[in-house]
């Protein structure tokens, strides 16, 4: 067998993880599956709908424990979302689970019309999202999902950053009577902190206070913001870190609050630079006339480099080092204009 | 490329060598789609060594035959066969799935010999309809082949393409179904049954041929033949994991990667089959 895949965390990043005492958890995807199963055990109207995706969705135990509550439609993502919409229209609490890449591209019209426009509360669950399937190539990357769904009205977009955020998001989505998109990766995640997370995932969380630069992250990119802040602290730079599990609707107060106290803002996300959290934040700030130095750390608009998630992250600087570099650059630019 | 003088026996030997090379790639990369590569490799063998008028020498010829691998996940089989055809040196396959390698885990046009980027299931047939239609519009002589998985047929786009192909009487189009009866979750019959496949394609206006998808001779006849006034669907009955005793019919080998011991055993089994084949011939 080949050497173990490279880690998303450099040895320097691992040193910061140890310094911060972060606990290593599991893949958010596993926590999703476990939480949805716990909900389904309490409520027979909770259904998982899959498209030959129960293995990748970690839903095999769900299927074994609750065979009546899992609906398999075969490799047919459009059918998946249509069927989910039909089920939800009758009052079922539906989680439609398929790789984010196919679900938010192939079935986009079903999401737009059958779920959002008809306003039925389907939880559309994009698994192995972003570049979780890095080496499988662009067909298997979902770097467009925030952008596509942000432009569709009547859907909340959630990308939890750790296991606790995942659990809160799934529980909240199950009881929310409106369409929700939940996006999960498959890497094991560190807990972003010790304090409890808000029950309403639409609220952003300040993970760290600081007044020099605001590092804003969502999904599996958030941890790298936290590590970047720890490294910057050693250089005497105070970074505020904001975890934003909800890409839409945006917690505008939290974004504005961070940008008002800091001279620079860096947003990190596992998404195309177009149409994601970064552009959403930029719009909010510019509209309010708040203009800190601003950078987006994301996947550029090019034929995407392929390799493992770790290789792609390090290639594009979605890492502690990459975020620190952007933060320094942004602060330097701001210093020059002061 | 067509016109080669390889005998059935030669191709049977190649199939075993291809199986060995597929496993080497997957073992080396620690990733890959093992079961489906082993089920379709005899089909690719016959296509590239006996049927398709395509190779490195005529790659730029607009009249080359086209092959689109709709079940893109079985890319290891395609890479191995393309290397054997001389599209690129086989050693390059040691970079499969590495950061920055063109040998991505699904077909891309960065690799010489690949017509279209695939990997999201349900795309190959409509693309092939377009290619075949272009040939008809231009009175060009080339043929178009596409390879689909049986599980893949749940994607509605296949049936849209099937309807369109019959409507345009695309006799230059052949769709091959790698009918190994398994997908990821389990048996296709249990996940989302698509039977009876022959009657479905016939009802859509296709000529249907059913073959043993591991018989070089049967595949050759089916793939060389063409209907008049309608597209051809070759239902190739195959075994997922074919050739390796402990992989055959076992669903977890869809993307299972052999351990060192399993890899060793698999190579031994292939070696034994090779000896037997050569013994029979002498
Ligand atoms: C649109 C789409 N949905 C899901 C997948 C994930 N996937 C890859 S292979 C596979 C199973 C394919 O089964 P089948 O078509 O029978 O192929 P084979 O048995 O030959 O491997 C699935 C679901 C995909 N690649 N594309
Ligand atoms: Mg199959």
From TrEMBL, chain A:
What keyword terms does UniProt attach to this protein? Thiamine pyrophosphate
The answer to keyword DNA repair applying to this record is no
Task: Write out the transmembrane intervals.
Answer: none
Report the SMART domains cross-referenced here: Transket_pyr (SM00861)
Superkingdom of the organism of origin: Bacteria
Record-linked InterPro entries: PDH/Transketolase (IPR051157), THDP-binding (IPR029061), Transketo_C/PFOR_II (IPR009014), Transketolase-like_Pyr-bd (IPR005475), Transketolase_C (IPR033248)
Q: Which cofactor does it need?
A: thiamine diphosphate
CDD domains from the xrefs? TPP_PYR_DXS_TK_like
Domain Transketolase-like pyrimidine-binding residue range list: 26-192
Family, as annotated: Belongs to the transketolase family.
Which PANTHER family does the entry link to? Answer: PYRUVATE DEHYDROGENASE E1 COMPONENT, TRANSKETOLASE-LIKE PYRIMIDINE-BINDING DOMAIN-CONTAINING PROTEIN
What is the designated name of this protein? Transketolase-like pyrimidine-binding domain-containing protein
The source organism is: Aeoliella straminimaris
UniProtKB/TrEMBL annotation, chain B:
Co-factor requirement: thiamine diphosphate
Residue ranges constituting the Transketolase N-terminal domain according to the UniProt record: 27-259
According to the lineage, what is the superkingdom? Bacteria
**Record key words, sorted:** Thiamine pyrophosphate
Does this entry carry the keyword Membrane?
Answer: no
The protein's matches in Gene3D superfamilies, at most eight in alphabetical order, are given as: 3.40.50.970
Q: Membrane-spanning regions, if any?
A: none
PANTHER family with a match to the protein in the record: TRANSKETOLASE N-TERMINAL SECTION-RELATED (PTHR47514)
Tell me the protein family, please.
Belongs to the transketolase family.
Q: What is the name of the protein in this document?
A: Transketolase
